[in-house]
């Protein structure tokens, strides 16, 4: 009987074979091309074990040999690399007015990027879920036609997602208690591959950690700069969601008790004083208006328009107050500003940095860097797809490849 | 060559034997008494490996056999338990006016609790470090005389501690850039056992997680209620310190832009509006005055004194604003109020809870519970000692048993 731990547990008591398979897979992901002897030397696994693990991963089609080394001391060794192409990881992002799908292979190479119109708030949740399932089905079928095994599907949602993948609250979609995980699995007829649902800021943070300019950063926070502002918090290399998965709601921390009302019903929330609504200086009714308006603000700021620059300065100061909370409480290495903060960053970043520097008690602002995202608006979908690879790397391996029965030859 | 990971790594590429030794040690810690077959069945290690690992841990004096089982199906098996007594883990807490030492054995049983006068702010850092080293030496010698191997020493400091154990800033001690780790190791003549230095709130959080009323909670924040207010943040079962170890500074997040000045030079910090200075409604010059004054406030509150209750209500409301930041951003299962918040909790907790409930966007306040600590004022020292056990459980095993020569004490 496993009871609750009395203290931290650095490793779970999981099946050692699966752990070792994932150790080898991750090692090859990071160090390929490499030999079986390299793997044994660096992981501490013995050579016979490594050979058996490599054979298993080759059977599954995840690794392949690429011939002998040259240029090294000792006997030539057969080099091994990741075999990315036979596999696909699917990420879908739900936004208020569009759906994004991003598919990558096992090696993280992008296979597909689609954007589709989405009724968002105009649809009831059931119809919206059907739209998402329809897109997922089209993507999965495409992968099947290309002969790629689907490793998993992950869906990013702008809202509070619980541990079972239900969306408890997504104000911008008008959703309350939508069992997106269950509905999607049913709509996809209980697929073989795993399905995961997660908050969009969380997936975007994971995208930055894997693919972004600060990839590999172990302590990183991503702030979505959309109509809402959410935080994806990565600490010690992993996303931290809190007890029920509702962490990251920096957007609803009060920044200014005298500030604007927030759509959540509270006053002076970060989202209300430093979100896109504050940049536009008005309530945002329909998200489709935003893109040209932000472009106009960027033009005005470039032209030195005083009112525009003053407004951006005010918003940046309040954003800096929010980032200073992250800085004092979490001491991240980097805070990445996403969404519409990206085009606005040239006019806001210096003020944000100054505010954070003044408000952080740690010497040298704890080493914090603040930067605009380089991943664009599909960061969350890309992070969702990356999350599927994380699952595989953590030991959620696909079953051995089903080789189709040969067709009966004609007599 | 190990380069930085491109993605999260669920397990490090550490030596598998050490990992497996620590898996067995932790299993026995949680499930003793248990048999070798139990260990094999639950960990996935094979029986021969388990026998070898158990023999190794018995050689080191960490496990012992306690005879055969009865009352179970099948052949009787030799049962194994942790052999706590031959080992000691030493925790020391530095406070402004006293030092606390707590020693526990490998099984977590308390062996010793000492409190000593400490000059605190009146001493220069060199003298203060000598005092700490002197106390450590006396504790270590006591353990040697008792025939116990010292597994490690961990020291809790009220300040910003970097990753190498240097205290960068401890305002209440008047310390800036004190290499406490290095100074202590030198003063202890480079001991065999590991030495660790950490922020006091961090160690107190670890004490709660291991020994407190919410032990085993995977997402827990501890707030020190001393002159300063610091947070120890445990997420997914582990302390999260941030990139340079400066996380947890909720005490210097601005709660009220119109609030009191803080000793850090900023305005309206949580520490200034909801720390013990705010409870006493004045600047605190010497910490020795606090204890009787808090007792007096508790008496007045019990007697229904209106001014006292109003002041505690005001402080509780501001404390609630701070806890709501934790709640929205981190979604912890429990926030534990320590230090002087403990005797004040009966008059503050309801207001704190109400404020947090109103300010948290997650349904049902994300499941958060807020509670007063049950561990008393030596939580940080106890957590420091527990941290030494964590190190052992994570694979930092002591060498085969050697009882050290006593260290020379000052003449």
Record the SSE blueprint.
2 copies of one chain form a homodimer.
Chain A: H1 16-31, E1 34-35, H2 36-43, H3 47-59, E2 63-68, E3 78-82, E4 87-94, E5 98-104, E6 110-117, H4 125-145, E7 149-157, E8 160-161, E9 167-170, E10 175-178, H5 180-187, E11 195-199, H6 200-211, E12 220-223, E13 231-235, E14 238-239, H7 270-274, H8 276-280, H9 290-302, H10 306-330, E15 334-337, H11 341-359, E16 369-372, H12 379-393
Parallel strand pairs in A: 4-7, 7-11, 12-15, 15-16
Antiparallel strand pairs in A: 1-3, 2-3, 4-5, 5-6, 8-9, 9-10, 12-13, 13-14
Helix pairs in contact in A: 1-3, 2-3, 4-5, 6-12, 10-11
Describe this structure in words.
The structure is a homodimer of 411-residue chains. Chain A is of the alpha/beta class. Chain A has helices at 16-31, 36-43, 47-59, 125-145, 180-187, 200-211, 270-274, 276-280, 290-302, 306-330, 341-359, 379-393; strands at residues 34-35, 63-68, 78-82, 87-94, 98-104, 110-117, 149-157, 160-161, 167-170, 175-178, 195-199, 220-223, 231-235, 238-239, 334-337, 369-372. Chain A has three domains: 16-82, Orthogonal Bundle (Arc Repressor Mutant, subunit A); 87-203 and 380-393, Nucleotidyltransferase, domain 5, CATH 3.30.420.40; 213-374, 2-Layer Sandwich (Nucleotidyltransferase, domain 5), CATH 3.30.420. In chain A, strand 12 (220-223) and strand 13 form a beta hairpin. The N and C termini of chain A lie far apart (59 Å). Chains A and B meet through helix 1, helix 6, strand 13, strand 14 and helix 10 of A and helix 1, helix 6, strand 13, strand 14 and helix 10 of B.
């Amino acid at each position: 009987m496993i009871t609750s731990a009395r203290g931290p547990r650095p490793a779970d008591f999981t099946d050692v074979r699966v752990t070792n398979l994932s150790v080898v897979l991750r090692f090859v992901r990071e160090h390929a091309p490499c030999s079986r002897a390299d793997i044994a030397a660096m992981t501490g696994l013995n050579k016979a074990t490594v050979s058996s693990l490599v054979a298993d991963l080759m059977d599954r089609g995840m690794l392949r040999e690429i011939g002998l080394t040259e240029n090294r001391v000792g006997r030539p060794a057969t080099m091994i690399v990741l075999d990315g192409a036979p596999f696909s990881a699917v990420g879908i992002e739900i936004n208020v007015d569009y759906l994004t799908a991003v598919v990558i292979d096992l090696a993280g190479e992008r296979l597909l990027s689609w954007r589709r119109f989405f009724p968002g708030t105009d649809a009831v949740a059931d119809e919206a879920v059907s739209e998402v399932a329809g897109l997922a089905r089209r993507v999965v079928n495409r992968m099947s036609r290309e002969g790629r095994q689907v490793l998993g599907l992950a869906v990013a949602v702008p809202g509070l997602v619980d541990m079972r993948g239900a969306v408890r609250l997504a104000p911008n979609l008008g959703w309350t208690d939508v069992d997106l995980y269950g509905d999607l699995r049913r709509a996809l007829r209980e697929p073989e591959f795993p399905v995961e649902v997660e908050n969009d800021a969380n997936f975007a943070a994971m995208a930055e950690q894997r693919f972004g300019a600060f990839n590999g950063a172990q302590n990183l926070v991503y702030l979505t700069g959309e109509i809402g502002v959410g935080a994806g918090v990565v600490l010690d290399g992993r996303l931290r969601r809190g007890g029920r998965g509702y962490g990251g709601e920096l957007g609803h921390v009060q920044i200014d008790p005298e500030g604007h009302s927030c759509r959540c019903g509270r006053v002076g929330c970060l989202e209300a004083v430093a979100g896109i609504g504050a940049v536009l200086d008005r309530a945002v009714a329909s998200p489709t208006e935003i893109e040209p308006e932000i472009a106009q603000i960027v033009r005005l700021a470039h032209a030195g328009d005083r009112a525009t620059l003053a407004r951006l300065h005010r918003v940046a100061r309040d954003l800096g107050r929010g980032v200073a909370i992250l800085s004092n409480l979490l001491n991240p290495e980097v805070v990445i500003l996403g969404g519409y903060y990206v085009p606005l960053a040239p006019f806001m970043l210096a003020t944000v940095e100054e505010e954070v520097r003044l408000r952080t008690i740690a010497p040298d602002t704890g080493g914090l860097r603040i930067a605009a995202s380089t991943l664009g608006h599909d960061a969350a979908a890309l992070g969702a797809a990356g999350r599927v690879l994380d699952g595989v790397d953590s030991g959620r391996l696909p079953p051995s490849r089903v080789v189709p029965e040969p067709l009966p030859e004609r007599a």
